[in-house]
Fold each of these.
Amino acid sequence: QVQLVESGGGLVQAGDSLRLSCAASGRAFSTLAMGWFRQAPGKERGIVAAISRSGTYTWYADSVKGRFTISRDNAKDTVFLQMNSLKPEDTAVYYCAADRTYGDAVIVGRDDYNYWGQGTQVTVSS
């Protein structure tokens, strides 16, 4: 089992930055590919960014490319999402996800993740 706890959400203005963190426990963190998803009211949960277990490979949704950066610290069992130039349309509950991989690859499919955090709210006002 893997336990994931997100933190760092909040209310900000358009153009501001936020850094989300997700602390993992229960399994060797370096064996886990990680992802960040978000879900706005009335919409499906969709992927924002993903990172391979070593951190070598990353993937971003087109809507956040150039603004968001995913990273991880395997020594601290934590994955981060740095969000810059935030827009009102970034408003959502952000979820951290994890799953074990046998190779150093990203996972981008929502259904391919078996472990999820409880989510953290990000609200961007205009």
Note: The chain is about 0% helix and 50% strand.
Amino acid sequence: QVQLVESGGGLVQAGGSLRLSCAVSGRAVSYFRMGWFRQAPGKEREFVAAIAWGDTTYYTDSVKGRFTISRENAKNTVYLQMNSVKPEDTAIYSCAADRQYYTVSVSERPESYDYWGQGTQVTVSS
């Protein structure tokens, strides 16, 4: 059974940093496409970042240059480093995993991912 558990959320001031973690069990993160999504109150779920097999990465325009997605295979964990955060980054952040092996293309579509975590709240104060 595949499980994804996010951690690292919290309250941070604008301009600060957070690192979100997504611990994965039931499969090795090194072989699969992974993504981070977020959902703010009253808004639709939004793509944030993705990393494909081979470590190609992709970001939504609003976080480019500020956020970095990465993975640590030894810990079977995917990270989202968030720097220079803004109040508009406030949301519940969820990680997601694709069930297909060796997918070299990244995707911002939620339907490309089969497994989801419960999410972690990030609140940025101004």
Note: The chain has a mean pLDDT of 95.
